[in-house]
Write a structure and sequence with these properties.
single chain, about 325 residues, alpha+beta, 2 domains, three-stranded antiparallel β-sheet, 13 strands, about 40% helix, about 15% strand, binds zinc ion
Amino acid sequence: MLTEARGRLPWLREGSSVPQQQVIRDFGTSRAKAHKDIWERVPQRQRAGMPRWKKKREAVPSLNYTRRGFRLKEGRLHLAGGIVLAVVWSRNLPAEPSSVRVYQDSVGHWYGSFVVPAQARPLPATGRVLGVDWGVKETATTTSDTHDLPRPQHGRKAQAKLTRYDRMMARRRPKKGQAASKGYREARKWRAKTYAKIARQRQDTGRKWAKKVVTDHDAIAVEDFKPKFLAKSSMARKAADAAISATKKALIEMGHKHRRDIRLVHPAHTTMDCASCGARTKHALPLSERTYTCTTCGTVSPRDKNSAHVMLHRAGLNPAGAEGTRPPGALLPEAA
Ligand SMILES: [Zn+2]
């Protein structure tokens, strides 16, 4: 079918058939994964129901080359179809790559992403465990006071810029059936650039935090947070969700790399349970309520710290390995 399509469509013929075959193979062999790749960048609200075709002009190019489709020679990347690329290497490849994905981001920059066998770097055992709760006020509240991650501040200026570009785009938006103006395309590019910068900063903060957490603990119980990105939610809420997602991703990757035990905990009722006695309150605490008071055992603790301890219990980790855990029996409130 590809041969037939190439015969009919000149623009398809212009490209090498090797990555085209690979695109089809990717889709056929691991449909779920290919599906994820394709729909990843489509906003959530469009995902409901039947998938929507991505228009060619909206799609960001992404091509996968496996062993016979690429070659590395003197630091240059040779692709099937006689394409030679000078690569700016971010770091040396740790092993022989089995494939490379060449793609363009929304800003217009081109990247090559190489697949190499994963190399585990086990870290020495610490005998310590950590519970992590995600939140808006603090991105991560943990069972150790020295491992909490406050809400990142660097996004603020950029967020203001994003809002400005959003308005600019709304003003310059082309009418139906009309081509986008230069001004509109420009605003869209600036927005994409700013957004990419925020994403990089989030990733960087997340990785640094994850490295510290993973170095200091053998096992980490973490809330399996799923971002909602509700249409009505505030900019601050959306930014917080994105920060949590990036941090959680970094933690899972870092844990995997260093062979740590990362346990994902279902988020239901984690704010309602008492970390000391396990009793559940009848109603969820309103977000404004910063203190958790247990009506069964009388424990009083900061709300997010309580949730972080609940993560440990839920994950089946021994809270004795966590810092700041009260010895059994000492259940009276500190202030009493
Ligand atoms: Zn209790």
